[in-house]
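Example 3.2
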Amino acid sequence: MNRDTALVTGASSGIGRELARQFARHGHDLVLVARREAELAAVADDLESRHGIAATTIPMDLDDEAAPQELYDAVHDHDLDVGILVNNVGIGTYGPFAESDLDEEQTQLRLNVTTLVTLTRLFLDDFTERGTGKVLNVGSVAGFQPGPFMAGYYASKAYVNSFTEAIAEELRGTGVSATVLCPGPVDTEFQDRAGMGNSAVGSTYMQPVEDVAQAGYRGLMSGETVVVPGLPMKLLTTLARITPRPILRRVARRVNSDR
């Protein structure tokens, strides 16, 4: 069976690394992209030795307006036939927005939204031309509601969730699909990087990263549009749809605030 090559951004750790492992286990060659070159090379070496696939690394900091085009050009320069695009790279900022670092907020917006949109647009040219291809965007259950003390992060994921659902409908019947993976809090280094270890969401319930990646891979390959891993998160998203917005805001404030 033909297995499309998957390009995974943010592949050196967390959900990106585990998604790369899922693709490798199922026989896909990989293009791995991340800023940390040594960690990226270690992931590639491990997956090649364990699963007998080819893993090409492209060390790159995607927090740059020109980076998505440079990455797309590098893929073509290396004659890498990418059939699956996984937009995973992203960060989270934490704390009152009025006290936030503006540079960090802008970096978050570039990585979580602008880079994802640009890469999706570029690779859709290839996918739609040949009538086959898949896009997996990593959103979040956070994108289904407002998030005080993580205002920019929740908003960025709302964009990703909505954007992916919309283009999935546009692509229906073309042979190209788009899927958004919407996990809850995941057991990765994300919370520590965001500085939210003292919040309730940063110190209680965590989804195993392996379960999240497995659900994402299965959903992508079966053509699902929205994948919410785990029963607790499915229930949460259902409640978010029927709960009045003022209540949602207050609950999120309580969950995200320092204890």
